[in-house]
Amino acid sequence: MWNERYSSEAYAYGTEPNDFLVAQFEKLPEGRVLCLGEGEGRNAVWLAQQGRKVTAVDASEVGLEKARRLAETRGAEINTVHADLADFEIKPQSWDVIVSIFCHLPPELQRSVHRRCVEGLCSGGVMLLEAYTPLQLEYKTGGPPTTNMMMDAETLRVELAGLEFQHLQECVREVHEGEFHNGIGAVVQAFAKKP
């Protein structure tokens, strides 16, 4: 599915970074950044342009090829890893920042990935996440077609236990990120720090 989604010359979710990521950037610690389900690379490339060492992981080789092209055109350098998140090893205490932007997964895999993210952060590291909530089905402006692949604040408190939330809220906002995330959207935003 994702290779097909990314097969067009156009960037499915645009080439500009996510609004929440940009708004929170100044609070992010220096160091190594892991971007999960990064697709065509808009967030990873922007972070690299800000001087961060970024690794972008995605299951779509087509998406990652576009991410590498985007980085090249912007004079940025990113590391790309072609892997399914079910198999990708997030080594304990190895990342300063983990970014998850609209990285929707089946519930069991989501729980596993989130636990590995908590373990994978260094002390003082930060998890930054934005995802659609079940309310998004009323807006139909992007995201998965079923609620079981969406997230809410309560679920994130449980799945990211061990982190201290500095920001955790559900809200409805304008999301204009390419063709497939366009319009009013119901989202959950999280910024959580590892003690």
Automatic annotation (TrEMBL):
GO terms for biological process: methylation. GO terms for molecular function: methyltransferase activity. Keywords: Methyltransferase, Transferase. Transmembrane segments: none annotated. InterPro entries: Methyltransf_25, SAM-dependent_MTases_sf. Residues 33-125 form the Methyltransferase domain. It comes from the Bacteria. PANTHER family: PUTATIVE (AFU_ORTHOLOGUE AFUA_2G14390)-RELATED (PTHR43861:SF3), TRANS-ACONITATE 2-METHYLTRANSFERASE-RELATED (PTHR43861). This is SAM-dependent methyltransferase.
